[in-house]
């Protein structure tokens, strides 16, 4: 017949194994820490907003406006507001460079498969092998930073490969 549980107890052992004093002390302390952390989090309040209601509405309006793009400027600590069509035109212009080409599918899986066996069979150190092999690699992202100090505001192309599982992610750590 099950015993009535004492609700004031922090730890109740209903297993067939006995707990030694150190285990009981550890589990009791962990429960007390959890309880205190939960109490602190529940009592916590958000800090007062540092922007007004009007600014919050304006921010929301800017966020949902699909006709503009908000970017950081290149080499200057400035925010740039630009028409979406101009942004797309400038990115398209960057992609006209012969260094870029359109592919019918993502080639990274094929590269991953083609390089895995030769790297594994090589005499390279294990740490280097691990850095050279990537599983489920992600395609880098291209974006541009406007050069506001130059005529026509050209873009500086940025190829961001700092995504998890990119071929450069282990270098960036």
Would you write up a description of this structure?
The protein is flat, with a radius of gyration of 28 Å. The protein has a domain at 69-172. The chain has a two-stranded antiparallel ribbon with strand order 1-2. With 173 residues, it is α+β, with helices and mostly antiparallel strands. It is built from six helices and four strands; from the N terminus they run ααββαααββα.
Portion of residues in beta strands equals 5-15%
Strand order of the largest sheet: 1-2
Shape: flat
Query: Helix tally?
Result: 6
Low-confidence parts, pLDDT < 50 over ≥5 residues? none
**Helix-strand string:** HHEEHHHEEH
pLDDT averaged over residues:
83
Q: What is the straight-line distance between the termini?
A: 57 Å
Rg value: 28 Å
Work out the number of β strands.
4
Largest sheet descriptor: 2 strands, antiparallel
> Helicity, in percent?
40-55%
Structural class: alpha+beta
List keywords for this structure.
single chain, 173 residues, alpha+beta, two-stranded antiparallel sheet, 6 helices, 4 strands, 42% helix, 13% strand, flat
Strand-helix topology:
Layout: H1 21-43, H2 53-64, E1 68-72, E2 79-83, H3 84-95, H4 108-121, H5 126-132, E3 141-146, E4 155-160, H6 169-172
Summarize this entry quickly.
The protein is of the alpha+beta class and 173 residues long.
